[in-house]
Design a protein that fits this description.
Radius of gyration: 21 Å
Shape: globular
Helix content: 25-40%
Bound molecules: N-(aminocarbonyl)-beta-alanine, zinc ion
Oligomer: single chain
Distance between the termini: 29 Å
Structural class: alpha/beta
């Protein structure tokens, strides 16, 4: 007896797209094929795509930026994620202002018993000296990855090259993936001075203060260091033509992973010229069509490994500052990630089958593989967690009042979106049925690699 059978959907399996039934029992996928056995529930999936649940490798729930905090919590964010077909998010613990051990344990307290989908952590390390190798090895069991910042000196988060090298050695010793926010602080300081002297108020200055070269230089430097140490390296939110091209070249002889985000694939820096341009201030900033086209080319080439949302929900009143340099960085997006990317694929004339295969790779399978969750997650196969996103090709409204992130604005509201999540299943529980929440308790799990 199955708990749920998904009937007759187009499932994206490792061997290809197949029209099939999927039987779920006890939170796992139990069978794939033509199923006749009884089931407590049957969900007709005719004409729907069944994808492995999306995994968001990059969210910032209730996250500090100087004096500000993002305006959500894990209950709200995981519910919104599920509305968007995401069944697992990877958020952060931040060592700064506390100890690394405290950072992880207090984040776990914020998460456990509060979440609707599964949540894992990356640990952002701002002081690699705090623990010795054995201390880091012990702590690393609780997190899926480490993160290092090459910028944000004013937030006390930046690692200089020496400390970055030290973090790379920790990554090697603990066998934990090192993920990097790559921007050159000193070049940013230089360009910021010019941009502020031109016009300190207009947010277009943010794009001028962070031109693509500051990302490309930092990526090249970090790759060179990672090669000396002999570790794989993962770049967060790659936004530029120069950055992604450098990664493509390096991938020929060292393991390098590239994450980009829906905003860098779809939005233009011209938004900073609008009266409400401050809303889109983020790091790295929005770019132009040359950068977007390069990211799309490298998505099809396989250079881009993952797409994360970099969800970071600041409200408009938090973004009102006299100078663009003071604006908290980040935009909400945990709910809209797949739809926005699917919609842009459609705009670019990509056939549906190619689009669903690509979504499966960069939003699920490759995230699971890179962060050590595969094949428990990231794939539709017998014995995997029954995490599934069931998707249809139909229009969807991305206005803030139609979304569930708790944000009063939506960065993608003006995107004429297409591609709707019809049902979402998390560990065998039907959380979204026909686009509606099924009113369940927060019973997601905190996950580690073991
Ligand atoms: O602009 C971005 N990427 N915001 C995320 C939060 C942070 O601290 O970088
Ligand atoms: Zn981020």
């Amino acid at each position: 007896m199955y708990d749920i059978v998904l009937k007759n959907g187009w499932a994206v399996l490792p061997e290809g797209i197949v029209q099939t039934d999927i039987g779920i029992h006890d939170g796992r996928i139990q069978a794939i094929g033509h199923l006749e056995e009884p089931s407590n529930k049957i969900v007709d999936c005719t004409e729907l795509w069944i994808l492995p649940g999306f995994i968001d490798p990059h969210t910032h729930v209730h996250w500090p930026f100087l004096q500000a905090f993002t305006q959500d919590n894990f209950t709200q964010a995981t519910k919104a994620a599920i509305y968007g077909g995401t069944t697992c998010i990877i958020d952060f613990a931040l060592q700064k202002d506390t100890s690394a051990r405290n950072a992880v344990s207090s984040r776990r307290e914020e998460i456990e018993n509060q979440i609707h989908c599964d949540v894992g952590l990356s640990l952002a390390i701002t002081d690699p000296n705090e623990l010795d190798f054995s201390g880091w090895a012990d702590l690393s069991q609780q997190v899926l990855a480490f993160k290092g910042y090459m910028i944000y000196r004013n937030r006390g988060m930046m690692l200089d090259d020496g400390r970055l090298l030290q973090l790379m050695q920790i990554s090697k010793h603990t066998n934990r993936l090192l993920t990097i926010h790559a921007e050159n602080q000193s070049l940013h300081d230089h360009f910021l001075g010019f941009a502020q002297s031109e016009d300190p108020a207009s947010p277009i200055g943010w794009a001028k203060a962070k031109p693509p070269m500051i990302e490309e230089e930092a990526i090249r430097r970090a790759m060179w260091l990672a090669k000396q140490v002999g570790i794989p390296i993962y770049f967060r939110h790659v936004s530029s033509h120069g950055g992604i091209t450098a990664i493509r070249e390096a991938q020929k002889d060292q393991p390098v992973y590239a994450e980009t985000c829906p905003q860098y694939l779809t939005l233009d820096q011209g938004l900073y010229n609008r009266e409400d341009g401050a809303l889109w201030v983020m790091s790295p900033p929005l770019r132009n069509s040359n950068d977007r086209d390069a990211l799309w080319d490298e998505l099809w080439n396989g250079t881009v490994t993952t797409i994360g949302s970099d969800h970071c929900l600041f409200e408009p009143e938090q973004k009102r500052w006299p100078s663009f340099a003071q604006i908290p960085n980040g935009i909400p997006g945990v709910e809209t990630r797949a739809t926005v990317v699917w919609n842009e694929m459609r705009n670019r004339g990509i056939p549906h089958e190619q689009a669903v295969k690509c979504l499966t790779s960069v939003m699920s399978t490759q995230v699971a593989q890179t962060f050590g969750l595969y094949p428990r997650k990231g794939v539709i196969t017998v014995d995997a967690d029954a995490d599934l996103a069931i998707f249809e090709a139909s229009p969807v409204n991305l206005s803030p009042n139609k979304l569930h992130m708790g944000s009063s604005w939506s960065p993608f509201a003006e995107v004429g979106a297409f591609g709707r999540i019809r049902h979402t299943i998390v560990r065998g529980q039907l959380k979204i049925l026909d686009g509606e929440w099924t009113d369940q308790e927060p019973n997601g799990k905190f996950i580690t690699q073991n």
